[in-house]
Amino acid sequence: MTKYKLTYFNFVALGEPIRFLLSYGGVDFEDNRIEWKDWPEIKPTTPLHQVPILQIDNEVLYQTIPICRYLGAKFNLTGADDFENYKLDNCVQTITDLRMKIEMVAWDKSSPQNFIDEKRAELLNKTIPFYLENLEKIAVKSGSGYLASSKFSWADLYFVPMIEYMNFMMKTNLLEEYENLKKVYENVMKIESIKNYVAKRPTQGN
Amino acid sequence: MTKYKLTYFNFVALGEPIRFLLSYGGVDFEDNRIEWKDWPEIKPTTPLHQVPILQIDNEVLYQTIPICRYLGAKFNLTGADDFENYKLDNCVQTITDLRMKIEMVAWDKSSPQNFIDEKRAELLNKTIPFYLENLEKIAVKSGSGYLASSKFSWADLYFVPMIEYMNFMMKTNLLEEYENLKKVYENVMKIESIKNYVAKRPTQGN
C-alpha cells in the first residue's frame, strides 16, 4: 500500500489544502506536524529548505500548488477539459497572489505599527475586495456552486483552507459579502470526508 | 480561425514564455507590445490590472503560468503521466520563486545602494546557486536533455525565457556552471520555431 507522509507545521496555512485533498481522497496519511523548535534541524533535510513536503513512498514532493494539482489529478478533481483546467489554475494563482500580499503585512515584524496599520487598512479596503470580486465573478459565471468549473474540483479544496488562513491573518471573515464564494466554502465544508477531517483536526495554531 | 492576441510590454520577462509557446505551436499571434506611457490607460481594462493577458477569440486569459500550462496542453507539451506533470509544475514554481527573489532586489528603487549591493551579493553567492543546484539535479535525473521530463515539455519553454530575464536582471550568465541546465537552454534554442522567433524578436528592453 502506498504510504503518504505530510510534513508541515501544526498550522493551517500551506499544509492545509494538502490535508484537505488527502482526506478527500480517502488516504490514510501520516500528518507529521512539526514544532517550531525542531524546524532548524528539519529545514536542511528538505529540498528547498521549506515545508510542506509530501512523501509518497520514496518520492519527496514539495511546492504546495504542484502537490495539490497532482493530488487533484489522482483523485479525479481536474476540470472537464483543458480550458476548465486553465480556469482552475488561474483561480489558484489569484488566491495565491492575494495570500502573499496579506502575508507581507500580517507577518511583518519589523515595520513601525502605524505603517502596518496603514497597510492593513489598504488590504481591507482595496486589495482584498479587488481580488475577491474577481473570484466572485468567476464563481457566478461557473454557476455550479463551485469556484471555476462545472463540477467540484481541486481548486475548491485549495480555496477553502486558504480562505481560513487569510481570515486568520486578517482577523475577520473575508467572504461575508461574497454570496457565491460563501456558497463554494459551504459546499466544500459539507463534503463528508472534509467534515470528518475538520472535526478532528487540532485546533491550535489555526 | 482562432485569433490570438498577446498584450505585454516590449520586454522579455513574463510575456516571453507565452511568446515562445505560441511560436512553438505555430500560432500566428498578434504580439501587442505596449509602451509604458500607455500602461495607465490599459491597466484598468485588464482583469487583475496586470499583463500579460492573452486573448483567444473572445476569451481573456491572464496569469502567466496558468496560460503557459494551458498552451502546453494544447500543443502536446505535457508530461508523460501525472507524476511527470507534477515534476514540470514543481520546476516552474521553483523558477518562479527564484525569479521573484531576484526581482525584489533588481527592481528595488527605494533602498540605499549599499543595502542593494549586499542583497545582490547574497543572491549571487547563496540564493541563486541554491535554486539552480536544485534544478540542475532535476535535469541530471531526467537525463533527457530537457528539464524534468522524459521528453521536451512546456516547462522547458518556460525555463529558457525566465533564464534570459534573470540573466538580464543579474547582468551575468547564471547557467555558466550548470552543464545540464545549459544543455536544456541550448536544446530549446535549437528548435526551429524558437530559433525563428528569437531571430526576429525586437531586441530593445530585454
From TrEMBL, chains A, B:
All residue ranges annotated as the GST C-terminal domain in the record: 81-206
GO-annotated molecular function: glutathione peroxidase activity; glutathione transferase activity
Reactions the enzyme catalyzes: RX + glutathione = an S-substituted glutathione + a halide anion + H(+)
Occurrences of domain GST N-terminal (ranges): 2-79
Top EC category: transferase
GO BP annotation list: glutathione metabolic process
InterPro entries per record: Glutathione-S-Trfase_C-like, Glutathione-S-Trfase_C_sf, Glutathione_S-Trfase, Glutathione_S-Trfase_N, GST_C, GST_superfamily, Thioredoxin-like_sf
The keyword 4Fe-4S appears for this protein: no
UniProt cross-references to PROSITE patterns, sorted A to Z: GST_CTER, GST_NTER
Keywords: Transferase
Record keyword Transmembrane present: no
SUPFAM superfamilies named in the record: GST C-terminal domain-like, Thioredoxin-like
Its EC number(s): 2.5.1.18
Any Pfam family hit: GST_C_3
Xref: Gene3D superfamilies: 1.20.1050.10, Glutaredoxin
Assembly and oligomerization: Homodimer.
Record family assignment: Belongs to the GST superfamily. Sigma family.
PANTHER family: GLUTATHIONE S-TRANSFERASE, HEMATOPOIETIC PROSTAGLANDIN D SYNTHASE
Entry protein name: glutathione transferase
